[in-house]
Write a structure and sequence with these properties.
The protein has one domain. It has two helices and two strands. Strand 1 and strand 2 form a beta hairpin. The radius of gyration is 18 Å and the shape is elongated. The longest helix has 25 residues. The protein has about 60 residues and is mainly α. Helices cover about 55% and strands about 5% of the residues. Bound molecules: zinc ion. The site of zinc ion has 7 residues, from loops.
Length: about 60
């Protein structure tokens, strides 16, 4: 097989937000756990709202 170079396939990673272990394939793929993904989404929404306010102020 072509996979002989690789000693092992790692299916774990650290969450980019809380640096906890990610064990689900979906979380590893996203680089963030489900709880942190939710929080990050809320943060982005807050940031977007702030940017919008600034835009309105500037205009
Ligand atoms: Zn996390």
């Amino acid at each position: 097989m072509a996979d002989t170079d690789r000693p092992e396939v790692r299916l774990v990673a650290h969450c980019r937000r809380c640096h906890g272990w990610l064990v689900s394939a979906a979380s590893v793929a996203q680089g963030i756990g489900p709880t942190c993904a939710e929080r990050e989404r809320a943060d982005r929404r807050a940031a977007a709202a702030t940017l919008t306010l600034f835009d309105v102020d500037a205009a």
